[in-house]
Design goal:
- With about 260 residues, the chain is α/β, with parallel strands linked by helices.
- It has a single domain, classed as 3-Layer(aba) Sandwich (Rossmann fold).
- A seven-stranded parallel beta sheet has the order 3-2-1-4-5-6-7, with helices on both faces.
- Helix 1 links the parallel strand 1 and strand 2.
- The protein is globular, with a radius of gyration of 18 Å.
- It starts with 11 loop residues before the first strand and ends in a 6-residue tail after the last strand.
- The structure holds nicotinamide-adenine-dinucleotide.
- This is SDR family oxidoreductase.
Length: about 260
Amino acid sequence: MTTTRELLAGKVVVLVGGAGLLGRSLAQACAEQGASVVIADLDGSRAATACEQILPHLHGGSAHAESVDITSKESLQALIARVSSLEGRIDAVVNSAYPRNPRYGRKLEDVEYADFCENVNLHLGGYFLSTQQFAEHFRRQGHGQVVNVSSIYGVVAPRFEIYGGTPMTMPVEYAAIKSALLHLSRYFMRYYKGTSLRFNCISPGGILDGQPQAFTEAYARYSQSQGMLLPEDFGGTLVYLLSDFSKFVNGQNLIVDDGWST
Ligand SMILES: NC(=O)c1ccc[n+]([C@@H]2O[C@H](COP(=O)([O-])OP(=O)(O)OC[C@H]3O[C@@H](n4cnc5c(N)ncnc54)[C@H](O)[C@@H]3O)[C@@H](O)[C@H]2O)c1
């Protein structure tokens, strides 16, 4: 008789930005595969709500919510200390926060230098800090892995024509942040040579979230079959990366975009 075992049974996964559109869904995918999940977010009350929604999806693990600010070393260190004392271990962190200032998302010619710098600091700087703090914890612990959420816009140049007739654009900071994040993750991988620590990225395509129809239709023209994807379309890739099936996948970027960037 064969028995099936959840792919992440016994693992403790911290989802930073876990109360967000993508983070919530990634947390659910981990919970369904037996992981204990920690929903860590700047917005503690949204994290608590996201955590309650996860409870029916647990398969032997647990779920709890935490507050964290990825731009604060003290906040990240306090999170790591709390989770490791509560759970006894941390197997992975998934960085899926999306910090930005109120002026984020302007057209290229309207972006002020101070705003460019602030948004890069918050997002790329925050992912750096989270990766740095968790990596050192993982080195002391003897194992662990980081998955950074990048984007197709870290991989290919924007297609500005798809934003025509909408107030949307693809922010220049985003291109700088997400492309840098891919190489930053490789830097960490190489730095920790001689350990089992892993550093990978997932680069999602556009996620459906109430965008104008003109945009979703224009976006879909570059896709193979689906157009914009749903948050749950990325969970399987994360579960693979967090599972022992990808034990020697390191320094990679897994693009999940229905062929959009190819
Ligand atoms: N939505 C998309 O279409 C899309 C596509 C590709 C990649 N991504 C990437 O996916 C990730 C998540 O995006 P999303 O759409 O879920 O965003 P979101 O805005 O829905 O969620 C982001 C979460 O990050 C939290 N956050 C913000 N600042 C923080 C900080 N300083 N510390 C901790 N948490 C903080 C917010 O409270 C929020 O819950 C981002 O890296 C984003 O670039 C999104």
